[in-house]
Amino acid sequence: MGVQRWPGVSAVSAAGCGVLRGKPFHVAGADCVLTRRGGRLVAFRDGQPRASAPLSMVSEVVLTGPVSVTTAVMHLLLRNGVPLILLSGTGRPLGRMEPPSAPHIQARTRQLDLHRDPATRLAVAARIVSGKIHNQGVLLRRRARRSLDPDAVWTVVNRLAKLEETAGSVTTLPALLGVEGAAAGAYFGVIRGLVVPGHGFSTRDRAGRDVVNQLLNYCSALLRETVVSALLCAGLDPFLSFLHTPARGRLTLAFDLMEEWRPVLLESTVLALLGLGTATAADIEDGRLTRPVVAAAINRFQTRLAAPARGWPAVAGGVTYGEVVRRQSLRLRAHLLDPASAYEPFRWR
Question: What is the pTM of this model?
C-alpha cells in the first residue's frame, strides 16, 4: 500500500538494516502526533490523519521537533526492533530508542584495540580524508560551468587534487587534520559561487542563520542517522572513531564515515534544492527552516539515497547510494577484523 505525503511528514526511500527492510518514516512539526492503528503508523496533524504506513515497510521513525508520540507506538517499535530517532527542530540529535541487542563483540573489541594503535588510526583516517577530498573535487568539476567564476572553481579542483595526494603521505593525525581543513576552506570558498546570490551565504558556519547553512545542518542530521544505522547494523560502536577524537555523547565514528559522503549526499542535495528554487532565503522563520522546506529536504535527500550509485571502481548497476553506505560500514568492519583487507573509501565519479 502506498504512503501518503504531506508537508512535514515524509516516508520515503532509504537504506534499511542488513537486507533492505523498508523506508524511514519522517514526521516534523510541533502540531503533529504519531499514533498507531493496528500494525500501521499514522501521523495526525490538526486532528486529521495525514500519512500512514504499515510497520513492515518502515526501517526507522525519525521525529523532528516536539512531535507527540503515543506509548502504544513506542511499544510497537520496540517489539519490532524499529529505531525511534529524535531530532531537534534544527536537526540536532537528541536521542535514539531501540531494544537492547547483542553487538558484534569481536568487531568492537578489535575496533577498540586498533583505535589505540596510532599507525592504524592514521591509516584509516587518511583514507577517509583522501576519499572526502576526492569527492569534493568531483562535485566542483560537475558544477564548475554553473559557477559565477568557473576559473576559480577549476583552480580549487587542482588544489584539491594535490591535497588528496598529500593526505596519503602525512605522518601524523594533526597534519592530516590540517590537510582536511585546508581542503574544506578552499572547497567552501568556491561553493559560494555555486549558490544563487541573495541567500545570505558567505561561509560555512554551523551557527549560521541563513538558509544555506541551515539546510547543510539539517541534511547533515539526515546523513548522520543514515550512517549511524549502517554502523549499528555492522556491529560497530558509533562512538569510537579514528579521524575524530572520541568525546562523551558524540557519534564520532559516524562523523568519520560521513566525511566521504558529504559532497555526494549532503552538499549535492542542498545545491539541488537551492538551484531548483525549492529553498530560498524566505524559507527561514525565527531562525529555523520552514516546514515545507524541511519536507522538501527530506524527500530530496532520500531520493538521492535511492539513486543508482556512481563510483570508481564502477558500482554494479542498480546498487543505490543507500546500499553503498551500508557496504562501507561492512568494509570498515572487515578491515578491523582483518587488517590485510584495507579500508577503501567510496570514490565518486
Answer: 0.82
